[in-house]
Known about the structure:
There is one protein chain. By secondary structure, this protein is mainly α. It is built from 22 helices and two strands. It has helices at 2-7, 9-15, 21-31, 37-58, 68-87, 92-101, 104-131, 139-155, 182-200, 205-215, 226-239, 251-262, 266-283, 289-311, 340-352, 356-366, 370-377, 386-393, 396-404, 409-412, 419-434, 437-449; strands at 330-331, 450-451. Strands 1-2 form a two-stranded parallel ribbon. α5 (68-87) packs across α7, α18 crosses α21 (419-434) and α19 (396-404) packs across α22 (437-449).
Amino acid sequence: MENWIINRDDVFENLLSKEHYFQSLLQVLQSNELLSNKEIENIEIQILNILKETVGYYTKDESCSVRVEVAEQIILSIYYTIGIFLKSKTSIKERVTLIKENTMKYLFSEGEKFLKIKIKESKELLNIVQKNKLKTANYAYIDTIDYGIPLFFMEYDSRFAAHETQGSIDYPLAIDEMDLVGIEYINEYLKKIDFENQFCSHFDSYEIENLLKSFDKNSDYILINIFELVLTNYLGCMLLGKGGITLDITDIERRYLKNKLGKLKEEEFNEVISRIVEDIFKEFTINGINFINYINKTIYKIMPNIKKNIEINKLENTFITFKNANENLIRYEDGESLENSRFKDITEEIRDCDKVENKIQIIREEIHSLRDLVDVLGSDCIFDYEFIEIFKALDDFEISLLLKNIPSDSVMDADYGTESEKEWHEKLKEYIDMINEEKKSKIITESFNIIL
């Protein structure tokens, strides 16, 4: 039996659910007579004992029963916790041995320890991702990194709902493993977005923003994967033999690529792409096996689109040409932000003012960065009609900058940020609706073209 397990390791793995790992493992082991019915029954009894103990924690020993829905969630959490520990082992044989030779209580306890390690590791990954995030105005990207994933850690309940994926994760990855849940999904998501950030960091943010705007003028507000667009266009640039870290591909260059690639047989096409990808790895000194695998998976995803668009003469849908965005884009460098203690003193001073004119004067004299202005507006020191008066005191470009910091109309229908943040968002919309159409159009257009 031992040799059979070793020889069938890969087959077993393909039969197992990543989401419901422990349950599926027990089913496979039972159906292949590696666990007897009696052993399965004993495991189930032990799981119920863990459930009983966990319910005691849930009710703080005030009751020995909970609603059926709650009990079902807790038992799924128990299975998930045991499963995440067993997944950490390298072979099916090792996992079977652990199940046979240990109590479920022990496996559950080890799973809880492993969960804590995963949570700590994931929080450290989030810090890295936030530190190295791209300079982009894409709302889904910013919102996911700054709000959605931190919300996961605030709401994640590793004891009673370890299998649930809390938070708000809207930004799409190039390759997204949707069959993971809980802390496993967040951990994998953060690893992948870190890979994407590392790759994109080789390019000037101005180049990336030009690429996004050329792909779609409303790129700030649509769900797109920035890394995939950057990788695709850079692949095209490398195929052209272009030097330097550039992303632009002209219409003439695209026609050249169509002729060059269109003549290749499938095997030749694959070989050319493989050589170019190897060159990219060397160019950026990419050595990590997981990073290399992630880029390769994304390339395999891109390749059929290249072939298809060559066949239908729509290669502009794959390789993007900059639409003279340089003429209109405005690169904004923010002023120096205040120290936390000084910022707190200023907001308290603003809050104590009886007249909005005095609040405006303080803001004009003390606030010299967009970040601080945004934070002041969301700090519960400005109220009701005062927002409109403050917006009137700002110039058009300052209004465009503020507009850049709020979601599009379609997104604003959903809950976003704190109540104070939502209030100034709504007041800014109200102010923009008040001004004449010419000025309104100028502000909105300018906001689209700003690069923060």
